[in-house]
Amino acid sequence: MQFIQEVHLGNRVEKKKAGQIFLQSRAQLSLELLMVFLIFLSLLAISYAAASKAGDVAQRKIAQELSQSSFNGFASALDSACSLGNGNVRIVKIRGEKAAISRASDGASFAFTAGNFTQSANSSCEISILNDEKSDEFAIENKNGKIEIS
What we know:
The chain is of the alpha+beta class. It has 2 domains: about 5-55; about 65-150, no CATH class. The chain is built from 1 helix and 9 strands. The strands form 3 sheets. The protein has a 4-stranded mixed sheet with strand order 3-8-9-7, covered by helices on one side. A 3-stranded antiparallel sheet has the order 4-5-6, covered by helices on one side. A two-stranded antiparallel sheet has the order 1-2. The protein is rod-shaped and about 105 Å long. The N and C termini lie far apart (about 100 Å). The mean pLDDT is about 85.
């Protein structure tokens, strides 16, 4: 004995067996679950992209702050070695990306470059740079009133 059920579809009526109705409802349920899953995956992809973008911005900000801090430490050590006179030596460790020091044409100014960060400063002593390669550590030495950076 098979059960026949009337299914009302808008303005028409169809007679279907109970098994057909059950299969159609399972297929519709599967399709709805698939749609919900696709929406979930889309939202997950959007949130991942937003989180990774925020992470990249934070990493750049940290690198910028480390470079600024390293520049401040370098400039302070240079001023200290200059003001304390002959024979004073300061060792400066650079945090973050390696830095390069370049001397300006006036001989008493220098530029500090680390990654995308560049800043210049002046010194009351003449500056000589012995090594112009990027480094994570610099020695600043006062030799008879002239600062040597290596």
